[in-house]
Amino acid sequence: MSTGSPVGSHRVVSPAGALPQAADRLDPNPEIADDEVRVSVERLNLDAASYRQLHTKHGGDGAAVRDEVLAIVEARGKMQNPVTGSGGMLIGTVDAVGPRSPLGLKVGQKIATLVSLTLTPLRITDRLERWDGSSEQVPAAGTAILFGRSIAAPIPDDLPEELALAVFDVCGAPALVRRVVSRRYHSGPTVAVLGAAGKSGSLSLAAAKDARAASVLAVVRDQDEADRVDKLGIADRIAVADATDPLGLAAAVSDALRGRGADVTVVCVDVPGCEHGAILSTATGGTVVFFSMATSFPQAALGAEGLAADVEMLIGNGYTPGHADYALQLLDRHPGLRALFDDRVAGRH
Ligand code: NAP
Prior knowledge:
The chain has helices spanning 48-57, 62-76, 161-169, 172-183, 199-210, 223-232, 246-256, 275-280, 297-306, 323-333, 335-345; strands spanning 12-14, 25-26, 37-46, 88-97, 110-113, 122-124, 137-146, 152-154, 190-194, 215-220, 237-240, 262-267, 282-290, 312-315. α4 (172-183) packs parallel to α5, α5 (199-210) runs antiparallel to α11 and α10 packs across α11 (335-345). By secondary structure, the chain is α/β, with parallel strands linked by helices. It is built from eleven helices and 14 strands. Bound molecules: NADP nicotinamide-adenine-dinucleotide phosphate. Residues 47-49, 86, 169-170, 172, 195, 197-201, 221, 225, 242-244, 268-271, 291-294, 316, 318 line the site of NADP nicotinamide-adenine-dinucleotide phosphate.
């Protein structure tokens, strides 16, 4: 058995010296090194920005989407959309554990990986024949590899797998929102969540409320989404606006927050072009959390400079300690949130 590197550098085929996330290609060989874990894959969850890009590119042709996902995994040894750069995560059953693995996993355990598919060596063996290409969740057979520094969460017995996958995919968002809002707690921050009817957005609303934001504003795309968010009973206010229209968005936020920008703006929309609107919607000295993978660093940085906007901007790190447990707690505390996720997983919206 070979000796692994905890960060997985021994799996990088090219370019030499890169870490797995930045690599063009990984070695997905199912034989494990001494500190690795092999997972028998059951289902992938493609990240929302990646799935939307593929769906749009192929005009909704599911077979073409499936062929492209297969081609990407074949070429790269991992599922990393070359356009969005994003991946997703997976669930499966642990089927081999190296003697030096520090992850504490046991053979036979059902787990969700909490590290991105963009750095997870992946081999698919069933040509994704059970997937019609029309949803983010992909029934799949194959193997995935976890490194010494990877993270994974056992799936609770009482949680359907599809639901666990949908929640864990975005569990970094609520944990980060709680942290950012809590640290401003004494100033009673207002929080605006863009894309609030989505997965990360609805969890972020609940986290902002939990962290005792003075006021939580949900910004959604249309009236249907507004009705859905209203049923959650979490948001203090709801505004309908196109997050890619900077002036329209800033006006909607300002109207809802009595002439001010938000102290904390959280971007959970899965399309590009929300940077300037988010910055304009944020009060001086406020914070913008860019959770969306469709965010452009130059658009955000140059946009803030060009608008002379004194705002702090955070990239939504998908990892915050305790993030998976916290997302599950929020789901337990808010039955409406659980219903929203159930509907999403069942394809009802
Ligand atoms: P989601 O559930 O699809 O939610 C996105 C929401 O944004 C949907 O409600 C969508 O409405 C709405 N939306 C789309 N275009 C809009 C517009 N122009 N104006 C206002 N709202 C709009 O997506 P998600 O799974 O929460 O993911 C959100 C983002 O987070 C994605 O970019 C994803 O890649 C990223 N992400 C980041 C991490 C990380 O670690 N940072 C991890 C996972 C995911 P419709 O459904 O009506 O289009």
